[in-house]
Amino acid sequence: MLNDSDKQAQKQQKASLYAKVADALRHEINEGRHPVGGLLDTEAELARRFQVSRHTVREALRLLRDDGLVSSRRGSGTRVMSPLVNARDSHQVMSINDLVMFSGDTTFAIETSEVVKLSQESASLLGLEAGQEWLQISGLRYRKGESLPMGWSSYYIPHEYAHIARLIHRATGPVFVLMEDFTGYKVTEVQQKISASAMPRHLAESLQTDLSVAALMVRRTYLTEESKVLQVTLNIHPADRFQHAMTMRRVRKG
Amino acid sequence: MLNDSDKQAQKQQKASLYAKVADALRHEINEGRHPVGGLLDTEAELARRFQVSRHTVREALRLLRDDGLVSSRRGSGTRVMSPLVNARDSHQVMSINDLVMFSGDTTFAIETSEVVKLSQESASLLGLEAGQEWLQISGLRYRKGESLPMGWSSYYIPHEYAHIARLIHRATGPVFVLMEDFTGYKVTEVQQKISASAMPRHLAESLQTDLSVAALMVRRTYLTEESKVLQVTLNIHPADRFQHAMTMRRVRKG
DNA sequence: GTTCATTTGTACGTATGTATA
DNA sequence: GTATACATACGTACAAATGAA
């Protein structure tokens, strides 16, 4: 049986050069040799010190950046991040099972596609401003092979992008990916709100359900870096046909 | 005002070369030009096609890999991932607003604390096996300063750890942290299921609500690395008093 | 089972662009 | 404006894994 330092040594021996450099720097940072908030040695200095090329140093620093341990800025340098921020356990990584719902598992039967002016009521439901115009695409969503719809989906898209409506018909992946592709914006934040309510009267018939069944409402707002709303989706499900599942995992450290 | 393609073009013009290559490939994949599960062109081919160096192609592919869109294997090639798996949401970092709920914001008024044998019904609700014995701690949860309860909370803990019940009374942070501390296990995974239902008859009175109001049910299962269930919590909220909010953010690099 | 061409991974060198101080 | 430091991009070479002959 190998002890820890043996194991570590063995590990280091097999590791790539940039991984060794990264481990060395990680160790130095953890030991407090580089003050938090301070600048790390420059890439050129590190290359000299470890007797490797700058390329190798950059690959090593990339690993540390991916771990949130350091942060680099062009012209400035590479800074050691606060351990409060890095801490790896503080951010948990989740796989969002139900976003998968929007790919191959389900089909979306579009019923309406039109530009609408938001009423006070629907605006508050969507978290948008009343009176604004949005492209609204609505329809029933079915699980593959099932005849009862799993819910009613509505997409709201800024009316200036109304022309991508036709693309959504043959879309395979999530719609917001299409939106990113065609607007040039990048979604950096998704806000999700899940609530319960009574079954909306006007949907009971299409959903082939009873007004006594509760509804699960899932609203997602897709925001760009500049906080522009690129898309809002609202999904309304009969309580007995859908539940929102999610798994959070502690990130394992390298 | 710029139209879409102008904006996209402008954005592309400012972007780095490898970002442009990545965007082009992303676009091709989204359009279905590269079959899912199939091999992408080799790095050398892409370099020739885009008239860039292999280095630039590799940087572009790195972006796509980070997004989970493709996956590379030495000796084999670069494969287009299933859209079920990719969708880049696989690594998103979320701040779980509602887990905060269990700390300072709210108070928990314990009403019952006893070891129960799970009925078939409650077992299926909890995702546990019927007939097993669990410590059940239940009570009303209040927001600070409010007189109406925001919901009914139940904690289920393996009966062999029943002695930590008394600790929960004065607990400040999340209960599962206590559990980790006293069992020596570490929670590596939390499964969450959110569903809607009718208001359970036996809770309407304590919650001071009406049977006509729907209920939002949030179940969390805390698992150790060995998939041992360390804790299950079930929260039942009147639809008008609670909604589950969550924010997902793309991890920023650099 | 071995050999061999293919393909990605690692590592080096060099040069230039661009943001920062 | 100038020097510095990271970012981008070109090139080359070899290592290691893969898969087919």
Low-confidence stretches of chain A: 1-8, 84-93, 95-103
Q: What count of helical segments of chain A does DSSP give?
A: 9
CATH architecture of the largest domain in chain A: 3-Layer(aba) Sandwich
Number of strands of chain A: 10
N- and C-termini, Cα separation of chain A:
22 Å
The biggest chain-chain interface is: A-B, 56 and 52 residues
| SSE pattern of chain A | HHHHEEHEEHEEHHEHEEE
Shape of chain A: elongated
Give a short summary of the structure.
The structure is a homodimer of 254-residue chains. Chain A is α+β, with helices and mostly antiparallel strands and 254 residues long. Chain A has helices spanning 4-14, 17-30, 43-50, 54-66, 83-86, 120-126, 165-169, 175-183, 201-204; strands at residues 70-73, 77-80, 93-95, 106-117, 133-143, 151-158, 187-198, 214-224, 229-238, 244-249.
Describe this structure in words.
Two copies of one chain form a homodimer. Chain A has nine helices and ten strands. Chain A is of the alpha+beta class. The first copy, chain A, has a six-stranded antiparallel beta sheet. The first copy, chain A, has a two-stranded antiparallel ribbon with strand order 1-2. A two-stranded antiparallel ribbon of chain A has the order 3-10. The interface between A and B is large, with 56 and 52 residues. The structure holds a DNA duplex (21 and 21 nucleotides).
